[in-house]
Amino acid sequence: MIAETNHTALLWGNSSCEDASFPLEIQGETMANSIIKLDVHIIFHIKSTSVIMKREDLPRIFTYIGGVLRRLGSIPMIVGGVSDYIHLLTSLPSTMTLADLVRTVKANSSRWVKSLAPDYAAFAWQDGYGAFSVSPSILNRTIQYIANQEQHHQGQSFQDEFKAFLNAYKIPYDERYLFID
Description:
By secondary structure, the chain is of the alpha+beta class. It has helices at 58-71, 98-116, 139-147, 149-152, 158-168, 175-178; strands at 2-5, 10-12, 39-45, 76-82, 85-91, 130-133. Mean pLDDT is 84; it is low at 1-19.
């Protein structure tokens, strides 16, 4: 069902549509560039069979991940976390999907962490991740949240924190499959 119509677009409402190829017409001038400003809070965890990151290595790992993000055209605002998971607050480049960004960051950082010491030979990230849009109005609060991960997690587990994000963003989940490698 069409919610609103004007001369330049057809906007669809929230009704279900049997045919996924419903019409969408947009007229007018085209833009010469793709311009986006999408800030995203990304969270990912090590595999349950992985060795944890040593506390003394975390600053180097965070710096490396920030460098990977910059090379991908992203603007990292903060990289933080604790010995078994990472939080990133970064922009999404206009040339890359979120899935490609996360996959590239995880693949390169995993390979790099393994090169730090023989202890990290079994290091690996879980396949999944969480990604949450961040409004400009809460960027500073999100930066502080990530900066204080060590203190924050003295009283809350990763699993409880992650479920709180899912609930806050109203994302449905089945807990039986949420934390599987």
